[in-house]
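Tip: read the tokens left to right.
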């Protein structure tokens, strides 16, 4: 949330999404590693998966015994604790494969894409898991991460919409101490992403609003530290009104190193 395991532990402290009890593993990949990919399991109802580029396993979960866990990256979490996995540039079938013993290594999502040298990407399992076909939607976006700001008061934030049954959403960030509000990009449809927006670092109340201006998803007290870069992603099922359901609409905040 390694460089290898050590690096992932540092990111777990920096990332706003929680790390689980099992150790995330960022697996060694082809060197020189000139492209980087971050992985998310945001497919509602999807089983835990390991993420692959062709036959190269990019993420896995280690157990207390040192063997690979059959849990994988579960719904609502990022592979490798939110760290980027590095791989040589080229064309790949990027997929999430079931980690459990039943249907082990069955690919439930796939995007074919060319990864370019020096670029970063995020792969999202999204939408709703189909238990009959054992498939879930997915998409890949480029992470145009800005360079570290020389202004120690500035942070960068973007918005990604990974909710398949949502209308286009606009993310608003209101600073908790001053009440000043920032619009993160504009109206963003499913599978869309805004550019990174520069804004003062600090604590924010976040809200994703539809075209009527109504708050559809709210998250309060989010720390967006200065000189860092964050992605806020909408995930879940827009039809759920429960405030405790794990599948309710939520705003995930992830550090982009």
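Filled-in amino acids:
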């Amino acid at each position: 949330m390694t460089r290898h395991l050590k690096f992932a532990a540092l990111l777990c402290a920096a990332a706003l999404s929680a790390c689980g009890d099992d150790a995330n593993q960022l697996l060694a990949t082809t060197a020189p590693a000139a492209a980087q990919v971050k992985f998310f399991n945001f497919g509602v109802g999807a089983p835990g998966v390991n993420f692959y580029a062709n036959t190269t396993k990019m993420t896995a979960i280690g157990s207390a015994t040192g063997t690979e866990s059959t849990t994988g990256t579960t719904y609502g979490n990022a592979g490798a604790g939110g760290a980027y996995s590095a791989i040589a540039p080229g064309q790949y079938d990027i997929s999430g494969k079931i980690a459990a013993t039943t249907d082990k290594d069955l690919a439930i999502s796939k995007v074919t894409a060319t990864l370019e040298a020096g670029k970063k990407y995020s792969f999202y399992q999204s939408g709703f898991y189909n238990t009959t076909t054992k498939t879930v939607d997915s998409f890949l976006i480029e992470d145009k991460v800005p360079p570290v700001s020389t202004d120690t008061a500035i942070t960068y934030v973007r918005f990604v919409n990974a909710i398949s049954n949502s209308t286009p959403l606009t993310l608003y960030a209101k600073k908790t101490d001053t009440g000043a509000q920032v619009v993160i990009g504009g109206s963003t449809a499913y599978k869309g992403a805004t550019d990174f927006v520069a804004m003062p670092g600090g604590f924010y109340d976040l809200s994703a609003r539809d075209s009527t201006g109504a708050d559809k998803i709210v998250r309060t007290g989010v720390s967006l530290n200065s000189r860092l870069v964050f992605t806020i992603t909408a995930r879940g099922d827009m039809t759920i009104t429960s405030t405790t359901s794990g599948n309710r609409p939520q705003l995930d905040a992830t550090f982009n190193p």
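Residues 4-14 form the longest helix (11 residues). The chain has two domains: 4-143, 154-255.
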